[in-house]
Amino acid sequence: MMTRLVPNIFYSNLNDGLDLFVKCLGFKVLHQDATLAVVERDGAKAYIVESAEFAAKDRPQIAIETDNIDELYREIQSRAPEMLHPNSNRVEKKPWGAREFAVRDKTDVCVVFRQF
Predict the structure, then answer these.
(1) Are the C-beta atoms of residues 55 and 16 closer than 8 Å to each other?
(2) CA dist 43 → 17, 57, 92 (Å)
(3) CA-to-CA distance for 48 and 13, rounded, in angstroms?
(4) What is the fold of 8-115?
(5) pLDDT in tens, 5-43
(6) How far apart are CA 102 and CA 90, in angstroms?
(7) Does the pTM exceed 0.85?
(8) Residue 96 CA neighbour count, 13 Å, CB half
(9) What is the pLDDT of residues 54-85, one digit of tens each?
């Protein structure tokens, strides 16, 4: 039935979202216009939307489950180490059993990568 959850993530400036998802995380742009970019990587998809009003209301934390967290960590660390979250900047096993690390952009959008 349901096959995918695709979030809208709001930014005051569309380029801030593209920095995180394209430059740091390696997503590809499927569509882009003045206020919207659709990005995708390995089946994970997001809509990056420019809206100062909605960006001011919420800075989301998004979790992406992976089957190879160590490889993904090495890739992101080599591509954009400055975006690793200061409180989760290496792969660690959490009390709930997942291995995790996170990235955070300059607008405080956080993406947690998780492997069980």
Answers:
(1) no
(2) 18, 28, 24
(3) 10
(4) 2,3-Dihydroxybiphenyl 1,2-Dioxygenase; domain 1 (3.10.180)
(5) 999 999 999 999 999 999 999 999 999 999 999 999 999
(6) 8
(7) yes
(8) 5
(9) 999 999 999 999 999 999 999 999 999 999 99
